[in-house]
User: What shape does this take?
Amino acid sequence: MIYLDSAATSLLKPPEVGDGVLYALTHYASPGRGEHTAANQAAEAVYSCREEAAALFHMPDPEKVVFTMNTTHGLNIAVRSVVRPGMRVVVSGFEHNAVIRPLYAIGARIDVAEGELFDPYQILNSFRHKIPGAGAVICTHVSNVFGMILPLEEIALLCRENGVPLIVDAAQSAGSFDIDFPSLEAEFLAAPGHKGLLGPQGTGILLCRDGARPLLYGGTGGLSRETGMPSFLPDRLEAGTQNVCGIAGLLRGIRYIRSQGAAEIRRRENILLQRLIMGLNEIPGIRVYSQGGALQSGAVSIIPAGIDCESFSRQLGEKGVAVRAGLHCAPLAHITAGTIASGTVRYSVSPFNTPEEIDKALEITEKISRNSYNM
Amino acid sequence: MHALILFRSLTYAQRGSRILGTRGIVSNVIKAPMGTTEKGCAYALSLRRDRLDAAVRALREENALFERAFVREEDGRYREIIV
Assistant: This one.
């Protein structure tokens, strides 16, 4: 199989990630509960992962790294902590349902900073007009549908200038961008463990600036006689037994990224993505959503001619090319790009793909497209 | 004789232990004896009594928050000391 669905989950991982999960499964117990070797080793692995994640995002305080189940979990905590009913919240036109649905659930007034696909200046200008007076800003760093890079640092600056709290969705950028969380001065940054950080599914991190409202209430292994959740991080947001096996794998994934450097990983991905985009552009009948790739990271969407995206994706899968079709849980991004009626087929790369795989995927894409286009 | 430095959670105790380790001060993260805290389960660093002052200094220099400090008496009880 040629796996080009890493924007959903990075199936291709360094072998030590799986080794870490397996070792934890048979050697680690619950951190912060017992005092035996299995509990102590688990605690060491969890804290080491906190340290590695903090270092990756240039954070001096590992305790402000909170483990979550996924980005959605982290974003729900962040939104519940910052947003109140009726609050005007400015979002980009590329947000995932992990942002939009919690906002609807709370009853926030969603104010979309509109701007065309691959026009960061227009998008930034829209943020500039809408941020003053807003209760919060939530912005994805990279669109999960189109791979478009949003001007996060400039948006963060606007938030700071206007005293508006910022929540960052780094689902598609964590691990392949050098993100300096303290310098953004964002309230929260949510990232998945199972995508660019190369950990297993069921892991994620939430970087916190200060306080937060718990989403779950329960045991933390400490302050047991108190009826409320602890006031401090990470305990405040980590009720219940943690996904220790997942975190042990995530630890290996983040260590791998730090050993390579996020910039190097992005460079490798960009070479593959450029190759993919160039090849897709040469296939007749395919509409490629790209401006050459300079404003893009990790993913590219297409719409084939003469066939729906889902059938096209299925045929690719049957021939061994794994991609994703549909709305990618981000209908707002499709409304922005004008693709809401059809959805798109998304190809997304990982640093472990090879140029040969890209060429083979293009060859198969071309064959399916030619058959569909000429029917 | 050994001493305990009490922290508000396991994570803070782990951070403290890392800091002390970089200064050559050996410590172990332990679950604090129930008599040292009124809030239920807590975590502490166990270390040699003669390293307590250096440890406290190191933690303060690194802005690592801790709660209280104790020394273990010969009868096995812990006595809080002001550091």
User: Anything to note?
Assistant: DSSP finds twelve helices and 13 strands in chain A. The longest helix of chain A spans residues 37-56. The two ends of chain A are 27 Å apart (CA to CA).
